[in-house]
Amino acid sequence: MDHLDQLEAQSIYIFREAFARLKKIALLWSLGKDSNVMIWLARKAFFGRMPFPALHVDTGKKFPEMYRFRDHYGKEWDLDLRVEPCPPIDAVDPTLPPAARSAARKTEGLKMALAKYGFDGLIAGIRRDEEATRAKERVFSPRGLEGNWDVRDQPPEFWDHFNASPPQGAHLRIHPILHWTEADIWAYTKRENIPIIPLYLAKEGKRYRSLGDQDITNPVNSTASSIDEILVELEQTKVPERSGRALDHETEDAFERLRVAGYL
Amino acid sequence: MNMIVTPTSPATPNGTTRPQVRIVIVGHVDHGKSTLVGRLLHETGSLPDGKLEMLKAVSARRGMPFEWSFLLDALQTERDQGITIDTTQIRFRTNSRDIVLIDAPGHAEFLRNMITGASQADGAVLIIDALEGVRDQTRRHGYLLHLLGVKQVAVVVNKMDRVDFSAERFKDISDEISAHLNGLGVTPTAVIPISARDGDGVAERTDRIGWYKGPTVVEALDRLEPARPLEALALRLPVQAIYKFDDRRIVAGRIESGSLVAGDEIVIMPAGKIAKIKTVESWPVTPVAGRQGAGRSVGITLDRELFIERGDIVAHAGTAPRETRRLRARIFWLHDKPLAKGDQLLVRCGPKESRATVVAIEKAVDPGELSSSENKAIGRNHVGEIDISLSNPIATDPYTENPRTGRLVIEVSGRIAGGGLVLSVDAGQRAVPVDIVPVESALRPDERSARYQHNGAVVWLTGLPASGKSTLAKALERRLFTNGGSPILLDGDTLRAGLNSDLGFSAADRSENIRRLAEVATHLARNGHIAIVAAVSPAREDRATARRIADTAFREIHVATPAGVCEERDPKGHYKKARAGALASFTGIGNDYEAPQAAELVIDTSKRTVAEAADEIEQMLKTTGVLFDEAVDLAANI
Fold it and tell me: How far is A226 from chain B (nearest CA, A)?
């Protein structure tokens, strides 16, 4: 078994545990490279078709390429796709800096979707290597009744035994690719031939390393126009993956405040 | 973390894969773990551009001197409190290893995070302050490393600058900790004098520690071996689930040890049923040929239909794990309330879970203390050996024979409260008191079959309230009786009025209610009767228990009348009451009914008459060998 085989086997194990131990789960499909890998892994775990819904909490501000991708592969992969809108910006905490406030809309949209369907588990494609606060996550991460994350009181999790009993009315976040890195995602995408949104590949010296809302995501300087070239670039760069995400840089603690409130 | 790693050395020769090892850094609070991590990242060239400068600027803005540990204390809350509170994972490279570093915290309150981190580690660095020496958490962490099965431990004696790089002081600490670890059966791979703040001993042997001839920290990390291969051990495939998404019935799980290939003769434990692997399924290409080894998540199909459930273990005949209801384990305890004799728990061995009772507690100690005074109960952050009695039989191995399956975790109120290693398994021991001697019937089963023209069976009707279970049950009872059979109706509500009148509607009481129904029904079936059980029985797990009790006599019928139709019927007025909030824990309005996935028969009573439904049940009982067809020779069935 090589490195990617090990990552894959671990993720499949997590998917099957989530499906066995929770009653009603959904996968959060952001349309980005990580959640596409997740869907692929889910299809491997369940032998072809993902047996629970793919939930797209839509800010309405994604790139046109992303919507085209969603509509095409939602059908091709036979997904039970649920698209849920976000509330208008006025409904969101006005004390947050602008980009964080914009991102917080997604948290509100997520809460509305949770209330609508009553999911007790949401599968999210965050990774430990992305961002410092995500490094502190558990694989099965309990959320409070308000969807909030209590980083100080996380239950222990060891030997692939997960805490799968959320209190009544609360839900769990499940992180099947927490242990992957950005380079792992690309190497696996290439090996498995998983489709990607072309915005990740360089055009005229720029490419997106991470895809969010159009107005708060910027491309980075790059000449990588294929996955192989992206992998070479990642070997050399010291620029963080989320550097193009405006909300990470507004204040030191903006991202953590968002996450405590229930952001991914 | 935002840490993109640059190789500090040329790529591995010949393009071979570099071994990846996961390490954890443990030790007493404030002995310098985070500082060492910050220094290691710097020395191996692993910091992103500008990160160091940014943190130096942040320190200046806050009017405090820069500390290496700030690199890790990325959370605002941590910086305010000045301690690292949780496990973060950071990757970097030494000359010959890819290292995943789990920065485990030292504050006593956060021991559960240290365990979360260390349980995933191949090796550990135990850090000790040269000035303070070995402290209670040094000892406790050493003990936990041993319990978690981490064998490769390097010790670093930090803050040597504060003892003037005294070789004598270093030797004292080195002797003390080596003796402690040796006593636990752990031999340190190295004991290294360092100053994480100044860099001595981390990547370089400086003049100030000129007297030290051993490896630096980076060199010690270089020598760590990745996790031991498990393929050489006997096959253990714990079953996570059985999937019937299409016409395949796939048994899914991860191979914890050993290997398998299509054609293998296997045994399903603890039931001991034998089968052959027909195919190994996969996606997008299926089936797959070739041997599948430890670590793979797989799906297999078998050459025959067996009742298999989550938590069973697939093994090879001859090397199967032991079936038991009783085992001994060495555990660590993380819950606020001490663990005492008589406590009721939930035990998990891989995907298998079982309710359990603590029968005995021995050697309960605080591993942080030097003198190990024994206690009656196992306190928070303490360790001990316990005997547990399990309500369901499980299949497991002592950890010395299989480190993957020979371990368990304990849950209290749905939250992991402890864990440990299986020391020994009392094979075959049943939790049955010796003074009970079951009396066998005077009649043989075939005598009854000959009279009734059927074999004994448990016909289990499950479905929402008002779905038509009782109506169908009564129709079936009448029909079987008319044909000379011996049906007996066991209605859930009727039994609650007598046998089960001590039970309420909590999850535990519902489980017990189902268990009693199943035991009574099975007793009737063994004596040749057809027990017809009509019970909502919403929990899949409870019905699986019933099936296990009745075994081959079990026939599940899902009365799958749509919820809307059931609510409209509402003959007992339950739905109305529940809607009005006057009936707590009522199944039917919420989504707490777990439909069967592999029932022998599914009937929607809104689409057929009672007579038609009874026909279908009768037909199913014929094809599955319960009712004797007129045309069939009676002798063939007995």
Answer: 20
pLDDT of residue B13: 35
What distance in Å separates the CA atoms of residue B555 and residue B455, rounded to the nearest whole number?
A: 12
The per-residue pLDDT for B436 is 47
Q: Which of B72, B89, B335 to mutate to test the interface with A (most CBs of A within 10 A)?
A: B89
For the record, the structure tokens of B213 come out as 């001839």
Q: What is the pLDDT of residue B103?
A: 61
ipTM above 0.95, yes or no: no
CA dihedral A160, B369, B201, B123 (to 10 degrees): -20
Taking residues A132-140, report their average pLDDT.
76
Cβ-Cβ contacts under 8 Å between A and B: the total is 158
Round to whole Å and give the CA distance between B111 and B113.
5
> Which residues in chain A (156-195) have CB-CB distances under 8 A to chain B?
156-159, 161, 163-165, 179, 181-182
Local structure of A145: helix, strand or coil: coil
Tell whether A68 lies on the interface with B, counting CB pairs under 8 A: no
Amino acid at residue number B447: E
pLDDT reported for residue B131: 94
> Which tokens in the block code for residue B181?
């670890």
Measured CA to CA, the distance from residue B404 to residue B231 in angstroms comes to 12
Q: Which amino acid is at A249?
A: H
Residue A76 touches partner B, C-beta closer than 8 Å: no
pLDDT digits (tens, 9 = 90+) for B601-618: 999 988 889 999 999 999
Interchain pair B77, A151: CB under 8 A: yes
Q: What is the pTM of this model?
A: 0.69
Strands B152-158 and B352-365: unpaired
Q: Which parts of chain B sit beneath pLDDT 50?
A: 1-16, 74-87, 428-436, 631-638
d(CA B311, CA B305): 17
Q: Which of B448, B441, B443 is nearest to B628 (CA)?
A: B448
Which run of H or E residues covers position B525?
Answer: helix B507-526
Best residue in A3, A6, A14, A16 to probe B by mutation, most B CBs within 10 Å? Answer: A16
Residue A51 has pLDDT above 70, yes or no: yes
Amino acid B367 reads: P
Please enumerate in sequence order all residues whose Cβ is within 8 A of that of B569, keeping only pairs 6 or more positions apart, or say none: B466
What is each CA distance from B535 to B56, B468, B472, B548, in whole angstroms? 68, 11, 12, 17
Edge to edge, what strands does the sheet with B152-158 contain?
B88-93, B98-103, B20-27, B123-129, B152-158, B188-193
Contact between A48 and B1 using a beta-carbon 8 Å cutoff: no
Q: Which helix (H) or strand (E) holds A207?
A: strand A206-207
Q: How many residues does chain B have?
A: 638
- Verify cis geometry, omega within 30 degrees of 0, for the bond prior to B287: yes
Please list every residue in chain B whose beta carbon sits closer than 8 Å to the beta carbon of residue A242. 2
- Output the DSSP codes for B149-185: T--EEEEEEE-GGGGTT-HHHHHHHHHHHHHHHHHTT
CB of A210 within 8 Å of any CB in chain B? no
Q: Residue A107: which residues within 8 A CB-CB, separation 6 or more?
A: A147, A258, A261, A262, A263
Pairing state between β B313-316 and B265-269: antiparallel
Residues facing residue B599 across a β-bridge: none
Q: What is the enclosing helix (H) or strand (E) of B423? A: strand B415-427
Shortest CA distance to B89 belongs to which of A228, A139, A241? A139
Q: What integer pLDDT is reported at residue B17 of this predicted model?
A: 58
B284: preceding bond cis by omega (within 30 degrees): yes
Q: How far is CA A88 from the centre of its chain?
A: 22
